[in-house]
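Reproducibility note. Readers wishing to regenerate the assembly model reported in the main text can use the exact inputs given here. Chain order matters: entities are listed in the order in which they were concatenated for prediction.
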Amino acid sequence: MGILLFITVLLIAACGLIYELIAGTLASYLLGDSVLQFSTIIGCYLFAMGIGSALSRYIDRGLAYRFVWIELMLGVIGGCSSALLFLAFAYTQGFQLLMYSLVVVIGILVGLEVPLLMRLVRGRYHFRDVVAHVLTFDYLGALGASLLFPILLVPYLGLVRSAMLFGVINVLVALWSTFLFASQISTVRALRSLCVVVLCLLAVGLAEAKHITAAVEDNIYADEIIFSRDTRYQHIVLTRFKDDIRLFLSSHLQFSSRDEYRYHEALIHPGLSAIPAPRHVLVLGGGDGLAVREILKYPQIESVTLVDLDPEMTKLFSTNPMLTALNQKSFLSSKVHIINADAFPWVDSNTDSFDFIVIDFPDPTNYSLGKLYTTAFYKAVARHLSVQGLMVVQSTSPMFARDSYWCIAETLKQAGLQTFPYHVYVPSFGEWGFVIAGHRDFQLPASLPAGLRFVSVTGLPAMFQFPPDMSPLPMPPNRLNDQVLVRAYDQDWKDISH
Amino acid sequence: MKASRRQFLQSGSAALIGLSIKGDRAITGSFVNDSFQLGHHLRDRAQFPAPKQTDKRSVVIVGGGIAGLSAAWRLHKKGFTDFVLLEMNNQPGGNSRWGENEITPYPWAAHYVPVPGPKAVYVRELFEELGVLKDGHWEERYLCFSPQERLFLYGRWQDGIEPAIGLTAADRDQFRRLEDHIHTFRATGKFTVPMEVGFSDSTADLDRISFAEWLRAQGMNSRILNWYLNYCCRDDYGATTANTSAWAGIQYFASREPEEKGPLTWPEGNGWIVRRLMERIGYFVQPNRMVHRISQTNKGASVFSGDTEFRADFVIFAAPTFLAPYLIEGMAPLQNFDYSPWLTANLTLDRLPASYGTDPTWDSVFMDSPTLGYVDATHQSLRTHIDRTVWTFYWALAEGSPKENRQLLLTKDWNYWKEAILHDLERVHTDIRQCVSRIDIMRMGHAMARPNVGAIFSAERRTLTKPHGRILFANSDLSGFSIFEEAQYRGVTAADFVVSKLGGHRISR
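Running the prediction on these inputs yields the following structure tokens for the assembly.
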């Protein structure tokens, strides 16, 4: 009997600590500032335990009966605490009030547990042994809980179900206690029935917890996150809201499936349609396969070489059915060759010649990416252009990052190329700019592939007109040893976000 | 964008688990390229074998650093093929030696050349030949990429090494006044690179006091300014301002006016230049050839190495000049040649430390550190994604006497220096011990000439720049300080002198 009793102590200690950890984690996650949240929650909790211990002296009679009741209450309140807090955060303003109330109530109940238990077993053992054993198992339980919580419970069960699980354990302890102290309880049967009913309710809660979490998350985030992965190179996130799929790379929006056709048609067709008989195309960046989808609309093209850094990205857009529907399985075409490599060294060492080169990199937000927007890079790329060849460069927004846009155009010029800047409107991006560049003159194409939704022959001339608020600015070129573009881009976005 | 709840909790729990197994990783490494044993043989006049064979050449070059390689480059350009270069170490390059591992090539010492001004004609000629200078434009990929330099002070990074944050009005005023002085000195045209071009006796007064004394005389007592100037002197001369001639201190600033944002640099530092030179004249270079004696007559000189006697019309002595009295028969000991001991280390980083405040730069310096900070070998990489790198850590033992510091270099073991380096880095990168897997350390007892007070205008130095019978001295220390341009200048002019004496008839041989 002794060991079973002390295992009871171990379990209730674990339950108590788990509720506290759940409250702290939830508060850190939802409110931020984990140091503040954990400190205040631990403080309140320990203080409430003190209150509980102090209150225990006022319980004179029916110790066992009251102990069972305390376990039942802890099971219900603690078990539902996580779900309650999530719902409160999603639907009410009273999250913090509820959280501290729950912490205090749970703390008081936990504070009552051990003193009552020690008094219950007082007659059976020496006082010295009771104190030693009860406290030993109490601390052991705390150790177990604190290890289980981060390693198993949070990753595999989540916060809502972890709380429910430990609620179940509290109720099982209650039920068990009715046997352990059967002789000291008069209404054993009624109490046992109550335990079974509560147990069933919590078990249902445990099974249904997923729905609660889902309901809550949908309310916190506008769009559902359908894919999220940290690769060696970046953080890939896909979100979906109804029929709109969005791709974020390291938190920067890359496309929205609702209007990406505008971006990709504008990126490809003005340049590619202006080349008499294009056969070989190079795409640098563009791991989503959307630019390649547009390129494959020209049947005379024999090969498309795509160089993208991240193999996980090209794999995702080659295999995920929702994404291959978006890029029309462009990566599965036999004409397409995917090379996962860093673009600058690849361009430097490769000797192939191309009729059309698409440069579609993330914006120059740091000095590493900035290298891909320098005179040195454009000179290296230009060596790959065939006699009739042209290239096109994604060049940020001439509206929101006007300095940056014209800096990129100037950089292409200083690399010895003729430049032909143009812009389009993409609702999810705003005004967006591109620059066509080459060793030759560029004439607007007289015809385009059939079935385009945005770019049209009649609409083309307007794309090459810049209204006064986006008109050219004198900018120095971006060079490896003087990356003015990165600083300009940073400043441009600071200017519009203040 | 917010991270998903699951992700947050997973990363949180990972951190909790990580905490329990976190510990410092094992760091391997050793001393490398030690050459003082060879030097000590010479110093102690060890017994060397008698010659068994002779090898006749027009010219023998002793020493395969930049000076010797430049002399060879010049001779070869002038059509000379009857010469040999003897290098003590197994790898040529001297202070421009480099190493390479699976991540990147990296420098062992000299790692850049400031963008040369118009007076450095030989450097410009070499760089045109190497494609560094094309049609008047400096090749972009050899110029140091943005962002170039940063300084850690007051617990954060700032752009550039010259302190720019936390200055008082007095500090700013003194920086401005120094700039005015420098501007005036520069305008005289007497401070140039190479120094010989503008060298003038009218500036001799500046060589009679230390840079620190000169600064005091100008009322420049700003702590920040003095830290910065001390850093500059330690970096170029391996000495503090108190041990640097005021002439040399002013030369550092007044001799340059860059025409392009530089400097010129490569992953393996100036080892890149050595490699290009070796492609051209490597045929003439004999490594592992320690010279132990040089004798001369009116008609020529003999260079003894191993069991070979090289008989030559002229010897270009491009090794450090302090070695000459130990090698050249009848040469008196030198009084005015002093050298700074240095330590460099190459640290292999399997992951990059967390870096707050700025993007990682090429050169990182820490204020109030006795070291010179570190240079990132992958900074000149064209890649956008870099997750492993090599840092070259520089430490000129400038405080105290060179002799004692040389002793310290020799007596302390690898572990001592490893810990000293990590302690210094830890102040800035608290997680450095979790990033570094290897630290190789190179100790150089006589790394750089030290422009002490009086050294620049000493009669001894000026005499040695003239031919010594059939021997021409060519090391950069003849200029009083060790920089690439001076080494190249000395090597090229020594070669030009030899060519003028030997004339064209040797070419046909």
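We highlight two features of this model. Chain A has a mean pLDDT of 90. The radius of gyration of chain A is 33 Å.
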